[in-house]
Amino acid sequence: MSKRRVIIFDTTLRDGEQAPGFSMNTDEKIQLALQLERLGVDVMEAGFPISSPGDFEAVTRVAKVIKNSGVAGLCRANEKDISVGWDALQHAVRPRIHTFIATSDIHLQHKLKKTREEALEIAVKAVKFARNLCDDVEFSAEDAMRSDVDYLCQVVEAVIAAGANTVNLPDTVGYKMPFEIDKVISEVINRVPNVDKARISVHCHNDLGLSVANSLMAVNAGASQIECTINGIGERAGNCSLEEVVMGLTVRKDVFDDIEIGVKTNEIYRASKMLTTITGVGVQPNKAIVGKNAFAHEAGIHQDGMLKNRTTYEIMTPESVGYPSTSLVLGKHSGRHAFVQRIKDLGYEIENDAMQSAFDEFKILADKKKEVFDEDIESIIFNQAKDEQF
Ligand code: KIV
Ligand code: ZN
């Protein structure tokens, strides 16, 4: 049986980063982008280039440094946004312009003050303009899941005819139940005549705690791109969590037997840890896949079962998501080898010269404290980044 490839589109650096408490500077974004590339995401959304000079710079630098994943930038549906977006993205090996306009009556009436017809025209014009610049164009119908489905089908058909390669249907406010997502995705796939010329994507927010379930339901209904973020960070209650949706598809291959994805699951923990260290915002201990307790077993009966056979209480191994198996303590007696290895284990890449001065800084710090923590090492790395360009 030939498999259906589901694209993992990571938006940690855009939708994730725009949530309160999660902002990152450009050097931090570059390190995270390199880790996302190692993780094997198909596309990473690096930012919203017109939103600020910092975002423009970050998208430009991510576009230059990333070779194996596509790099997307968000643009509203107008020529100015798209031109600026393209200026930043054009350096990428696989650039993608991601343009959007809302399609729900709530957004059209109260936010945009546009009619459905006007929004449709704006969407088509934007996609055509973007396709003249870039071969890979994604269109998002913001608040799609609260939009009238007949109108939504009309928009999807028109933007595909205008050249959109991917059409994303966001549950912008995390409102829908899984069975309703199934209905919308199925209707769009069954009713839009040219739907096979594009990829249908979902982008689910987590306001009712359903973003992962809704994304999996969408894939089951025929969607072939999932938009998600590391640790599920994002606006309000966040976005669909990459680690949860990816492990859902991986652990339950038996029910998703026609699906394939390109993510290297053993890089998940490192990506999660890097994000928490950079932002200073941890995940709750019971967080699925990456929480401190995700693989801990305390109850006697569970421990007994685990000792007899791990599958009694474990549906995936810690190794499969890259949980570190040993924890060597770094201190004043540690050598350069252990220091360099820890930097690699944490997922960072630094140049040889910067490595030497990082090691010197480590030794000075190690003399002052009993143990040098990962957070200390990360701040040493970003101190080097102030002098060097990654
Ligand atoms: O939540 C949303 O609708 C979005 C779009 C801009 C893709 O983030
Ligand atoms: Zn969003």
Automatic annotation (TrEMBL):
Enzyme class: transferase
Chain positions recorded as Mn(2+) binding sites: 15, 203, 205, 239
Origin superkingdom: Bacteria
Pathway: Amino-acid biosynthesis; L-leucine biosynthesis; L-leucine from 3-methyl-2-oxobutanoate: step 1/4
Quaternary context: Homodimer.
Residues of the full protein shown: 1 to 390 of 519
Keywords of the record: Amino-acid biosynthesis, Branched-chain amino acid biosynthesis, Cytoplasm, Leucine biosynthesis, Manganese, Metal-binding, Transferase
UniProt name for this protein: 2-isopropylmalate synthase
